[in-house]
Amino acid sequence: MIRKRLASNATLVDVVRDLAEPEEYLRRLLGNMRFCQKHHGDAFVRIGVAGKSAGGPSRLAPSYRVDYPTAEETLAVFNGFGGSSHSAFTPTNTLETNWSRDHLTIREVQAIYDDAKKDETLKARWAKD
After folding, report:
1. Long-range pairs of 90-99 with CB within 8 A, sequence gap ≥ 24
2. How far from the centroid of its chain's Cα atoms is residue 28's Cα?
3. How many Å apart are CA 129 and CA 120, to the nearest integer?
4. Which of 11, 66, 71, 118 is most deeply packed, by most CB within 10 A?
5. What span, in angstroms and rounded, lies between the C-alpha atoms of 22 and 41?
6. pLDDT band for position 4 (50/70/90)?
7. Straight-line distance from the first to the last Cα atom of the chain, in angstroms, rounded to the nearest whole number
8. Contacts of 124 (CB under 8 A, 6+ apart)
9. Which long-range contacts does 37-43 make (Cβ < 8 Å, 24+ apart)?
10. What is the distance between the alpha carbons of residues 81 and 45, in angstroms, rounded to a whole number?
């Protein structure tokens, strides 16, 4: 696999066009965010900025970390997830992964998903995948 390093402040906005399976990736990511939101009232996501490409330099499936707001107005880690499997990380893997400095809210991710589903270029690529 090819190693890919993203900018330290990258978000899903920066990589959505390069996702290996955009619809499935975003759908499953939103599912993990909704689980966090159900238990903590809100959810935010950061992506891993260093990792392997999923089948080539422009086919990404970045790992991601879901956080939630605390009473102290900071973010606490809910869990990290593998970008290809969407399986939960161990606590050690969650802490050791290189996460982006920036994050998106669940509403922002839902908007990306909705916009991507309307984007003719992505829809054509999704049909080929």
Report:
1. 94/65, 97/48, 97/63, 97/65, 98/48, 98/49, 98/50, 99/46, 99/47, 99/48, 99/49, 99/65
2. 9
3. 14
4. 66
5. 26
6. low
7. 19
8. none
9. 37/68, 37/106, 39/68, 39/78, 40/68, 40/69, 40/78, 41/68, 41/69, 42/68, 42/69, 42/105, 42/106, 43/67, 43/68, 43/78, 43/105, 43/106
10. 10
Closest to 109 in 3D by CA, of 66, 78, 48:
66
What percent of the chain has pLDDT above 90?
66
pLDDT of residue 11: 96
- Looking up tokens 């880690």 gives 77
pLDDT at residue 54 in the model: 54
Structural contact between residues 83 and 20, judged by C-beta atoms closer than 8 angstroms? no
Predicted pLDDT at 119: 74
